[in-house]
Design brief:
Layout: H1 3-16, H2 23-36, H3 43-57, E1 65-68, H4 76-79, H5 86-97, H6 102-116, E2 128-135, H7 142-156, E3 160-164, H8 169-184, H9 188-194, E4 214-215, H10 225-231, E5 242-246, H11 250-265, H12 270-273, E6 276-281, H13 299-309, E7 313-320, H14 324-327, E8 347-350, E9 357-358, H15 360-366, E10 377-379, H16 402-420, E11 428-433, H17 438-462, H18 473-485, H19 493-504, E12 508-512, E13 530-535, E14 548-553, H20 560-565, E15 571-572, E16 581-584, H21 586-611, H22 616-625, H23 629-633, E17 642-647, E18 653-655, E19 658-660, H24 663-682, E20 691-693, E21 696-703, H25 704-713, H26 725-733, E22 742-748, E23 757-759, E24 762-764, E25 767-770, E26 780-782, H27 802-818, H28 832-835, E27 842-851, E28 869-875, E29 886-891, H29 892-899
Parallel strand pairs: 2-7, 2-8, 3-5, 3-6, 4-5, 6-7, 10-16, 11-13, 11-14, 12-13, 14-16, 22-27, 25-27
Antiparallel strand pairs: 1-8, 9-15, 17-29, 18-28, 19-26, 20-21, 21-22, 23-24, 27-28
């Protein structure tokens, strides 16, 4: 889009904020403004602009959920009459100018009011403090949310605002740029270096620059005591807000604390008396008390609390997309003010993502169909010989895996298609996140630079030769990639080949880490940047890659928060979502799908608790009790020996996604299944009388004793932490005379071209499941493929009364409607909605034929059994005692071997 057309878009979009138009009225208005502004755009360009605006204005956003403690007392509605929304009005105009959909701006206005109203009342002179958390989605607009909150807090009377950004300089600098544009209205870096000459308005300052906030940091430098002392002379008795954007770093926090203490010691108590708002961005990272000890508290956690305690009136709001760690902050640590941790005891707000959000749910749940290939995901299978997932700092990278070359070719094609769609002025990025070592990242960058150069050379020589150009191996490879990935993208190959050199000639490969940051989107050019970014930890925390289209991702940590934060490919992809592709190992796909499900459940839990008027402490207990919490609880400083973890099984799903491949265990588990089926027959339940369901045979009102005897005989693999039978049997035993006395049982059987398997007189068609080859080393059959599950989607609906199932589905559709999801965004129903309305538990006996990995000739394939193996799963209904938990035991050394540790994946080698 040209600069003139962009200006026309801005003018029209801002006008529509006050008066909505559509159809002919919108097109007539665009035509009028086209002439009035002398843009003179062609009719087809005006029509495309009209369609783009209509799409934007069709985007909606729900209002999320809020959980409050009992002490909440509303104050904002009464105070609004005396609040001049100066800073918010400027920011709202900027959002409209930047093309944010009207309904999203309206939703942001409402949700930031909701958060502001839960902060302390700055007009209340008595001492107070508030602690809260805002739970968003990765790359979904959390920065826009807290920028809006800062603007409104400043309007309401907050005079000191501290934003604690990422742990790396490039993340802090990026956050400062956002605050400059959305709140301050000045380029603080230019001001710091050029003084009055650099005092040029940007962002919100272009609308009104009368009351410019004072910033004690800038885009070039973090907080420095000397600079701060000089700048305080500009504050003019705090008639304007003071803002700091600081790095989450022990030394920086110490400098800030020392400076505040020194000012207070000199008698300058005015700052300490001001109402202070502290925004903790990426609040799960380095802020919480990770050592789980009341005495041995991490430095940063302690310093943040010291900072809050210095002010008579303070608010802490942690923003995160990965709240698991925050929820595990021990709320019992409220011994006294000094030991009080950062648990969000006063409020938790869950943010809904706008309907056009390209996130984990869309990619890893809705985007992985039961049949057919994933929409956006591609599997990396060729890296082990060239660049293993686990490698050392001196690992040589002499060539690129073919999958990375394929991803690079897809990126160049996608850039070209975007240009042909009229998006040449937009940035376009590719992410390569394959190593935590900066030296290895540098080698990868060099190989990619060389490969890009070879492609450009071929395009210069043969790109304009039409079909004859396909004799060039590089151009032929590009066309094959186009056929595999983009043949459905409405453009034939010929125009793509002709336009490709011009489109991708400016492409560059850059490093993004602690020693180098080649990203720079600040230049004003009619042509958007085309960048391949190679990095590690810096690409896993907060950093935004503009126009991210292609990702090649080789990391494999299985820690919830680290994995989700690595999802830099989430965000908004207007006009090119269909071109986006993500390459990653199959194990990583499985884990992302698993975590996406857990995250969805967490947001759903927030909404349930809002309706039930539960407190943040109640929500914390619910999340700590979730089976997914096992990974989180065991993540930090585990020590040696065993870790005891309390898990709740109310409203839970448990399944054997990992099964022992040891012949003795396979035989013993088959024998347990045989005795179970024989027990069914003895109780009068036979295959011939069982109800045929999609996926198997259903038997109702089975005694709990049969289930317990099966679990007692089951041989669990030591790595299958969640299917330890001792805690599960304990949970069942406590409810065997009431809630869990009678069970529904499904014996799986699939129809079709499959050889029947006979076990205890039951002839069933085995399910077919693929397994990951790496786990065969540990004699384990680890289910891979569709979400790493042994069960099929929809299994938890079996046995639920039709009326209740229908009710659950209608409530789910209503929740989507409340979230602003249009019909086209509605996926198939998730299993969890049926679990919540079950009257009886469901036990599923799985008979599984194991399919060898697709990779082919690999070690330990002889450990895959020829005959079907047994697995099981249980759907536990909601308990009348939901807070009851049972104890799981983890071998911490084995846990570390499987999932890694923070020390192994914390980016330490990038910060040397």
């Amino acid at each position: 889009m040209s600069a003139q057309l962009k200006h026309l878009d801005n003018v029209v979009s801002q006008s529509l904020a006050h008066e909505r138009k559509s159809g002919d009225d919108l097109r007539s208005f665009i035509k009028t403004m086209n002439a009035a502004l002398n843009v003179n755009a062609a009719p087809e360009a005006l029509e495309q602009l009209a369609r783009d605006i209509e799409e934007r204005f069709g985007i909606t956003m729900g209002l999320g959920a809020t959980v409050d403690d009992e002490s909440f007392r509303p104050w904002l509605d009464e105070a609004k009459a005396s609040i001049d929304p100066y800073y918010w009005d400027r920011y709202k105009k900027l959002l409209h100018k930047n093309g944010l959909p009207q309904d999203v701006v309206t939703g942001l206005d409402q949700i930031t009011d909701r958060i502001l109203g839960r902060l302390g009342n700055p007009g209340l002179a008595e001492k107070w403090d508030r602690r809260g958390m805002v739970v968003g989605h990765v790359q979904s607009g959390k920065t826009a949310n807290y920028t809006g909150l800062i603007c409104k807090a400043a309007d309401a009377g907050y005079r000191l605002i501290v934003v604690i950004a990422g742990i790396h300089n490039n993340l802090r600098n990026q956050t400062q740029e956002r605050i400059d544009e959305g709140f301050i209205g000045r380029d603080t870096g230019r001001l710091a270096t050029q003084g009055k000459k650099g005092n040029r308005a940007i962002g919100v300052g272009l609308f009104d620059d009368r009351k410019v906030p004072v910033s004690l940091t800038n885009t070039l430098f973090d907080f420095k005591k000397g600079t701060a002392s000089t700048n305080t002379s500009q504050i003019d008795s705090y008639k304007v807000p003071v803002v700091l954007v600081i790095k989450k770093n022990h030394s920086t926090l110490k400098n800030l604390l020392d400076w505040l203490r020194e000012n207070s010691a000199r008698g300058d108590d005015q700052m300490i008396d001001q109402p202070m708002l502290l925004i903790d961005d990426e609040a799960d990272n380095a802020s919480i008390n990770t050592k789980y000890s009341k005495e041995d508290i991490t430095k940063i956690n302690s310093q943040i609390r010291d900072l809050l305690n210095m002010f008579h009136r303070s608010c802490y709001v942690g923003y995160t997309a990965t709240p698991f760690a925050n929820i595990f902050v021990d709320p019992d640590q409220y011994d006294d003010v000094l030991k009080e941790d950062l648990f969000p005891k006063h409020f938790i707000v869950g943010l809904d993502a706008p309907s056009n959000y390209f996130g984990a749910k869309k990619i890893f749940i809705d985007g992985i169909p039961d049949e057919g290939d994933p929409v956006w995901l591609r599997t990396i299978r060729d890296n082990e010989d060239i660049l293993p997932i686990k490698h050392k700092i001196d690992r040589k990278v002499d060539e690129l895996p073919e999958s990375l070359k394929e991803a690079a070719r897809a990126f160049l094609i996608a850039r070209t298609i975007r240009n042909l769609r009229g998006q040449a002025s937009s940035h376009c990025s590719m992410l390569v996140n394959a190593s935590r070592f900066t030296d290895v990242q540098g080698r990868l960058r060099n190989r990619l630079h060389e490969y890009l150069g070879a492609i450009l050379d071929s395009l210069r020589v043969n790109g304009s030769r039409g079909r004859d150009g396909l004799r060039d191996p590089q151009i032929a490879a590009l066309q094959k990639t186009w056929q595999r990935e983009y043949a459905e993208a409405e453009l034939d190959w010929d125009p793509i080949q002709s336009a490709m050199l011009d489109a991708v000639a400016p492409a560059k490969v850059v490093e993004v880490n602690s020693r180098s940051n080649g990203l720079d989107y600040s230049g004003e050019s009619p042509v958007g940047q085309t960048v391949i970014s190679v990095g590690g930890f810096s690409l896993s925390r907060g950093l935004t890659l503009e126009g991210l289209t292609i990702t090649w991702f080789l990391r494999n940590t299985m820690m919830y928060d680290t994995l989700m934060q690595m999802g830099r490919w989430f965000g908004y992809r207007g006009g090119y979502e269909d071109l986006c592709r993500i390459w990653m190992p199959s194990e990583a796909i499985d884990w992302y799908a698993h975590i996406a499900e857990a995250s969805e459940e967490l947001h759903l839990e927030l909404k349930k608790m809002e309706k039930a008027k539960a407190s943040p402490a109640d929500f914390g207990l619910a999340v700590r009790s979730h089976p997914a919490s096992l990974l989180v609880t065991a993540r930090n400083k585990m020590g040696s020996g065993q870790k005891h973890v309390l898990i709740g099984l109310s409203n839970a799903w448990v399944e054997t996604a990992k099964i022992s491949a040891k012949p003795a265990d396979i035989s013993a588990n088959e024998d347990a299944a045989r005795k179970f089926l024989e027990g069914l027959s003895s109780a009068g339940f036979h295959r011939s009388s069982a109800k045929k369901e999609t996926g198997g045979f259903l038997i109702r009102d089975v005694s709990v004793n049969l289930i317990d005897n099966f679990l007692l005989a089951w041989r669990n693999h030591e790595q299958a932490f969640l299917t330890q039978t001792t805690p599960i049997r304990s949970y069942i035993g406590e409810r065997q005379h009431d809630e869990l006395e009678k069970w529904d049982v499904l014996v799986t059987s699939v129809s079709g071209d499959t050889e029947l398997f006979d076990i205890a007189g039951w002839r069933v068609g085995p399910q077919v499941r693929s397994v990951g080859y790496k786990d065969l080393t540990d004699h384990m059959l680890s289910m891979s493929g569709k979400r790493a599950r042994i069960a099929s989607r929809g299994v938890e609906k079996i046995g639920v009364e039709p009326v209740k199932a229908k009710q659950a589905e209608e409530e789910y559709l209503q929740s989507l409607k409340e979230d602003g999801k249009p019909e086209s965004h509605r996926p198939s129903f998730p299993d969890r909605i049926y679990r919540q309305v079950r009257d009886k538990p469901l036990f599923v006996l799985h008979v599984v034929k194991v399919r060898p990995p697709e990779e082919g000739d690999l070690p330990h394939l002889d450990r895959i059994p020829d005959r079907p193996v047994i697995g099981w799963s249980i759907s536990f209904p909601q308990s009348a005692k939901p807070s009851d938990r049972v104890e799981y035991i983890i071998n911490t050394q084995k846990f570390r071997e499987i999932y890694g540790s923070d020390e192994e994946d914390d980016g330490a080698f990038e910060d040397d």
